[in-house]
């Protein structure tokens, strides 16, 4: 059975898996971007929050996502005496990872703005509000947009782990297909088509935005 | 008159300057000279209230001013050595950002002519040469109609021809009754412009 035959024969199963993966991504991306940006800004102004994010990011970088997912799915739920569906567990865990990642990128982008740009605004008599809108925000956007988009591509790839706690995502569907046809190369290569289809627009957007808005800090 | 009265500044145990007195009068150029690391830029930053002084006073037209006094900008404004033009804005936007919402067009046209900006006004800073950026930075300060202009080593990276252009511009600003504090270690420039010379 060739790759295209896999795609053709199992198209309905693959479509439902794709739908679950996309739903997960939409939640993970939107929660991550919304909370991550807010926490990123907050952590610059509130030192306690900043330190908290730093500690959590440090811990998070030492714990593989799959382990985190298992912790949240099994011991945590048992400890707290409640059960949530694997789909939501995966969203919660991966969104948490995404929030931390986005917050770090935003925070670093803010801290990387040369303070002299802001001093020039000050001695020019520009109000804090106008400075934020016209100088801070565009510089932060230019600095953070490409890494944030690349992080979202990584989050898409991390949704693969959700299958390990029983989420019926694209990867789990392909695992099932492989169990039937015993053609792992063809089955998993078919999976690649879907991931490429989702991540290519993101990667292209990241490249395009980087080229369009790449920060010129040559005057630093 | 912009005055620094007996100002002192230290960074930790390192004393940068002590009991320094500087006066900048409108229509005059005060040149501040000294060796590298002697604290010229720190002194300029102190006068612009960007650096907190340990003791002494900064007086603007007879009134003591401090860092929380935001109304002193842009009466006093600064052109930094490295210019710091905002990289995401065109040269035109760099010049006009602070005055947007006011009728600035006539003044902008004058500045374009005065500083010969026409050729690169709509370029981004990274598309302009250093001499061009220098003029944009000066225009950005001048559109604010400052009474005092503090210039930090603005000719340090320029060749002789470009330096000459800047000197001519500063002579003209003097005639327009702007008080200028110029930090430089360019002796020729100091000689051409200085009404008052301060060594630190």
Kindly describe this structure:
The complex is a heterodimer of chains A (220) and B (200). Chain A is mainly alpha-helical. Chain A has one domain (3-219): MetI-like fold (Orthogonal Bundle). Chain A is 83% helix and 0% strand. In chain A, α4 crosses α5 (86-112). Chain A starts with a helix and ends in a 7-residue tail after the last helix. By secondary structure, chain B is of the alpha/beta class. Chain B has one domain: Rossmann fold (3-Layer(aba) Sandwich). Chain B is built from six helices and nine strands. In chain B, strands 6-7-8-3-9 form a five-stranded parallel β-sheet, with helices on both faces. A four-stranded antiparallel β-sheet of chain B has the order 2-1-4-5, covered by helices on one side. The longest helix of chain B has 16 residues, at 160-175. The radius of gyration of chain B is 17 Å and the shape is globular. Classes of the chains: A mainly alpha (220), B alpha/beta (200).
Notable characteristics:
heterodimer; A: 220 residues; mainly alpha; MetI-like fold; 9 helices; B: 200 residues; alpha/beta; Rossmann fold; five-stranded parallel beta sheet; 26% strand; globular
Shape designation of chain B = globular
CATH architecture of chain A: Orthogonal Bundle
Average pLDDT level of chain A: 91
Residues in helices of chain A, as a percent range: over 70%
Please write the CATH class name of chain A: Mainly Alpha
Estimated share of beta-strand residues of chain B: 25-35%
Oligomer: heterodimer
